[in-house]
């Protein structure tokens, strides 16, 4: 149990606004695109810095609630942020509990995709950033304590939030539906948030990130990424940051090919995740028809 009396976030509720919307993940499932789309709605103000990670115990939590509030400004009905690390249990524990202790009335959106495709995209992302050096088959050799796999165990992640937040405050959507039926999916989000649902998102419904175009920086690119310029770029809005990084890094990077996932390993993954996804289907009533399992 979180002891709020000993928590550094407790302070007088001075000027500032707490969010009432959190996109909790999942990683590599379209959170950046969703964040960008929602921010274009006149009744919504999403945080300028997308991934605040405030509710992670060993990261931003110690900065305090006034720091968190400072990211939500302007006139809006909905203030939100998007941090995929909020659904990286057990790597980050007690996230829902901390969140509920601060914003118990918040609405949560959990955007998902085919769990195996998410794993592959997650691997490509880690490899592109230099955090992963193994082959995909080596990275997935051990299923235990493996964040690639636990992040795709969607119901296990969702279950942590259902201990605190009511079902009516959590919306589950998919990247496949956002890509194939963007306006319809975003109208569903609008109804969930009780805002004008028929807002035309046609000028903003485009994918900002795609693993198809991922590149891995060479040594010169790595040196560039350590400069103050790129530290400032990281804090820019995603729609600006993405294009700047793509433009500047391109000459100092190499195209990443889609990794070859061993078919036997793929079958093991599907079998391992099957029970979790069936629980998700039962909970949501969605068949997730675009998925491989």
Radius of gyration: 19 Å
Average of the residue pLDDT scores: 88
Q: Please count the helical segments.
A: 13
How are helices and strands ordered from N to C? EHEHEHEHHHHEHHEHHHEH
Q: Judging from the principal axes of the Cα atoms, what is the shape?
A: globular
Largest sheet: 5 strands, parallel
The chain-level structural class is alpha/beta
* Fraction in helix: 40-55%
Query: What is the terminal separation in angstroms?
Result: 36 Å
Q: Widest sheet: strand order?
A: 2-3-1-4-5
Query: Briefly, what CATH class of the domain at 19-114 and 151-206 and 274-284?
Result: Alpha Beta
Low-pLDDT parts are 3-14
CATH architecture of the domain at 19-114 and 151-206 and 274-284: 3-Layer(aba) Sandwich
Output the CATH topology of the domain at 19-114 and 151-206 and 274-284.
Rossmann fold
Range of strand content: 5-15%
Number of strands: 7
